Amino acid sequence: MSSLRLLRQLGHRNSLAQARFSTVPPSLPKARRPWTMLAAVTTASIVAGTLGAIYPPPPIAILYPRPAPAPMNPNTPEAQAYTEDLEEKLQSLPLLQKLRSQEDAKDWYEVRPYQAFPEERRVNHLTAGSLRGPGKLAVYPLLRVKNDETESIIVLHLGRGLCGHDGIVHGGLLATLLDESLGRTAICNLPERVGVTATLSLNYKAPTMADQFVVLRTKMVEVKGRKAYVSGHIEDLNGTRLVEASAMFVQPRYAKLLNTDQLKKVMGERPKEPLLLADGQDLHPERTHR
């Protein structure tokens, strides 16, 4: 073997040996100090707890609702100011503004039930009297009704004093509101404009939280002689369905003998004069009120 070749082999082996013994092992991560981890966990817990207290998740808000004060005395200045503020919020709702400005707005009219109801009868009426006031049904419901009486859109506020489980509106109250609203649509389509509830079916889709505006929509399905079939639902302002309903109303055989004036005042009659907004402008200047 030539001396040159021997020197090359020896040099190669020497290089491998140096590389083997000079390799530096990868650096290991430093162990995190226990107090650092504890501080991070504590900070995260405080932040999560604070956010949860301010914006509680829906399940927590349902299971552990915040306590609320009792409804105010309706005869106090504070109660009057609360009701007036709520009325302003109702009138400025984006949904209501949108409905009033749509192209087919002339095909609808607005009415406020119970406003013309006599006081001597109001005191013993459930939704017009007993449940009326701050913390309950503080403002009169606002109805937008189609001129042909086949549909209605009702906006109303549900206070904290209407709950079954604290913070959640009582299901029986929602049934009452649906019964009256569906009944109005049905009665307006019956021959003698009188009807009583025969059947009412409800499907509760989600809890209805208190202290919020809700929208109740009704639609005429069919009229067969003395029977009127209607459907409807309650939704929140985001469009989430809370309760669905269907019902049948029947006109009594003695309907022609009844005085329907009081019923009209309860339901709210279609306005005969121009309906004016707060600034004095006609809500429907493009149509003639009948």
TrEMBL record:
Residues 269-290 are annotated as: Disordered. Residues 281-290 have a biased composition (Basic and acidic residues). Residues 167-240 form the Thioesterase domain. Gene3D superfamilies: Hotdog Thioesterase. CDD domains: PaaI_thioesterase. SUPFAM superfamilies: Thioesterase/thiol ester dehydrase-isomerase (SSF54637). Coiled coil: none annotated. Signal peptide: none annotated. PANTHER family: UPF0644 PROTEIN PB2B4.06. This is HotDog domain-containing protein.
